[in-house]
Each structure stands twice: as C-alpha cells, then as structure tokens.
UniProtKB/TrEMBL annotation:
This is O-acyltransferase. It comes from Cyprinus carpio (Common carp). Its main location: endoplasmic reticulum. The chain crosses the membrane at residues 92-113, 133-155, 167-187, 193-213, 336-354, 438-460, 467-485. The gene is dgat1b. InterPro entries: Diacylglycerol_acylTrfase1, MBOAT_fam, Oat_ACAT_DAG_ARE. Belongs to the membrane-bound acyltransferase family. Sterol o-acyltransferase subfamily.
Amino acid sequence: MMDKDDFGPITRNRRRATITSAKSETVKLRNGAIAAASDLRRGPKARESLTKNLQLNEDSTRKCDRYDKMSCHKLQESMLSSASSFKNYRGILNWCVVMLVLSNARLFLENLLRYGILVDPIQVVSLFLKDPYSWPAACLVIVSNVFILVALYTERRLAMGSISEKVGLLIYIFNLTIILCFPMVVVLKLPSITPVGGAFALGVYTILFLKLYSYKDVNRWCRERTQAKARSLSRSLSCPSSSFASSAMQSHVSYPGNLSLRDMYYFVFAPTLCYELNFPRSESIRMGFLLRRLFEMLLLTQLLVGLTQQWMVPVIRSSMKPLQEMDYSRMTERLLRLAVPNHLIWLIFFYWFFHSSMNFVAELLRFGDREFYHDWWNSETITYFWQNWNIPVHKWCLRHFYKPLLRRGAGKLLSQSAVFFFSAFFHEYLVSVPLRMFRLWAFMGMMAQLPLAWFVARFLRGNYGNAAVWLSLIIGQPIAVLMYVHDYYVTHCEDDPTIAEAL
C-alpha cells in the first residue's frame, strides 16, 4: 500500500517529463527550421524537404480552422426570453396592425352585405333639431352670457369694495346653482330639445360652471394676497388686442386690471378650466398648423358619424331583444360585438377633441399651454389613467377641489373619493338629463372605479396593470351604452312603432 504522499514525486516527475518533451519538440522545430534554412543553401534535395515540412504545417493549420468552423454553439438566451437583451419587436407590432386591419375589414364587409349603406349625413341634423326654425339648444347657449356678465360684475364690485366678501359669495352660490339647474329644467320641460342638443347645451353649461368657479377662487386669492383697495381698472394684458400683441409677451397684468370684458371672454373661450391673470401666449398664429387641425376636425367628424351609423347602431338594434328576454349568452355576444366599434369611436373622439379641436382653439387664441393630455395609454393603474387622459379637468380638480379638501384636514383617501363622487355626479348629469331618465348607470360606473383602482394598484403591476386598464375601457363603456339605450327604448320608444322601427 502506498500513502498519498508517495504520489507527489511521481506526479512532479511526470510534469517535468512533459515540460521537457515539449521543450525538446520546440527545440526540434526550431532546429528543423534552422536546418531547413541551412539546407536551402545546400541544394535541391534540401529545398524539397523544406517544402514538405511547410505543407505539413499548413495542413495542420487548416485542420484547426475547420474545427473552429464546425463549432456552432455559444452561451446565449432565446430571443423571446425575458433574460434576452433583444427588444426590437417592430415586426410583431406590424403583424398585429395588419391582423387588426384585416379583421375589421372583414367585419366592415359583413356589415355592408347585411345592412347595406346606412350612412346618412342629413339624419345627423335631426339629432340636433326637430324643427329647422327652432333652435332651443343654441338659445340656451346664448343665454349663458347672462351668467358670465353676472360673475364679472360681482368681481368688479368686490374689487372696489362696494359689496362684502359674504355678499359676493352668496351671489356666486346663487349664480353657479342657476347655471346647473336652469338648463336642466329647460331640457326636461321643453320637448323640442333633442337628446343630442340637450347634451351639447348641458356640456357648455358644465364647462362654464367650472370656469366661473375657478374665476371666483383666483380673484379671491388675489384680494387676499394684495389686501389692496379698489383702484381704476386698466386693460387686461392676458388677452391683448392686435395693437398690444407685441408688448403682451413682456407685460403682465395685475389685479384688478384683469377684470375686463375682453379678459373674461378670452378665458371663457380658452381651452382651459383654470383661470390665470396672465396666460402663456404663443408669438403668432401658425396657419399651416391651424389648417391641419381644421382638416382633422372635419375628416374625423365624418368618420365618427359614419362609424356610428354604419357599425354601432345596427349592433345596438340587434341587442334590444336579447336584453328584453334576458338571454345572457346572446347579451354577452352583443356586448363583445359592440365593444370594438364603441372603443374605436371613443379613441377617434379623444383625438378629435383633445388634440385636433383644442389645439385649433389654442392656436386661434394664441394660447401657449397645449398640455391637454399625457401618456394615459401607458397607464398601469386606474388612478394614473384618470389623472392623465383629461389634463384640464385634472388640473381643475387638483387646484380647486382636492387640495382645498386636504388643507381643511381631510385625508387623501377621503379627498380622492370626493373627487370621484364629484366626477360621477357630472357624468350622470350629462347623460340622464338629456335622455330625460335617471338610471344612475354612469354614476355607478364612475364610483366602481374606486374599488377597481384599489384592486389594480394592489394586485396588478406593469403590463398586467396596463392590460386591466385597457380592459376596463373596452368592456366598461359598452355595458353603460347598452344599459342606457335599452332603458331609453323601454321608456320612450317601446309604445311608438315608428320610433321602435327606427331604433
């Protein structure tokens, strides 16, 4: 038996022998090369042996190169693996777009073959007017100037000290309450106002309500900050005339110089809900930009009308019978059929309103702040979506509702819930009043965003959260549309065969 230590000398001797043999081979090669070089001087036989040696060396080198070429594996991850650094999925995105276009083209052709051409621009006029000589919705919008002038007159009296802050507050409460109640009573009591015309008029009054509330708050903050007595009024530079356009970028108006008719109506038409004494202004009107936005508005308006008449209305018509019979399988099928056109129309309307229309108005008025929306399509939570898809409303809620509640001691959760409740009220106000029925579907849909927002923020993140936001948008809106259309049909059209047939 031998100990472990007995192998030590043997191993060392073997290593030495290997190294010695390698050295000897190297020496032989060198000696051979030297000998070959010396043989070149000796004669032709020596040259032959040298050539053979060089060929042997070249053959061995080629064999090594072939072996390297035969090696085709290395350490790497699959492209679709998360550990892979590959990020170029443009081809897959293009494939999705092509598949989307082809699938919708098939649906479009199927719709044409089944229903024919349903697009009728003349029919759109009847949605706004029942009598071509009676324009009640437009008259409502014109009457809104009375409330604008009342607000301006009240602010002038407050600035000069003619009335106290309490009296001014009472006037504002009365004025803002009438702004919400007056059009609602007119729409409900006047049969000549169509649902679409009523929704338009109520939308104008809602915007006016939010603007005048902001106007009241900002002027009150100015009085509290300056504590100055009334002084003579000057021209407002936040909306200069053409002769003052060049100096407007360098000058700033101070309170109460902003209390002018020009300044007031500039704010009324400006694409914002938050009042300021000095709005950011662009240097000039870009005619090319203005004409592009106008072209988009006209084109998208026609597209919205065509998609609604040709695609959405037939699906809604075919959904009435399953809803009445409570056939849940067919109801689900109709809901999924309605989801695609409804969502497409909503996306087109978003671009038409928040990009084309608001940029058109902003360019026309040289209004500098064009941040009307953020990247809501990347929303990973419901809260992020509501904060970024409608920036003018979000800024108003943050400035005049959410932060004042926090300053009064309310918690964040209570303040956020109050904001959702406020938004839910106006959603229901803008839908139920024009339809002349109160079902609270829009209100409940908005309030359902609270638990949904908590669930998504708590359990879903990243791509899963973004998918949940998209799913709520694609599925949630058609449910509300079907509920309101069904209730409207049952309430107003079921007993009238002509209206029922048209629906």
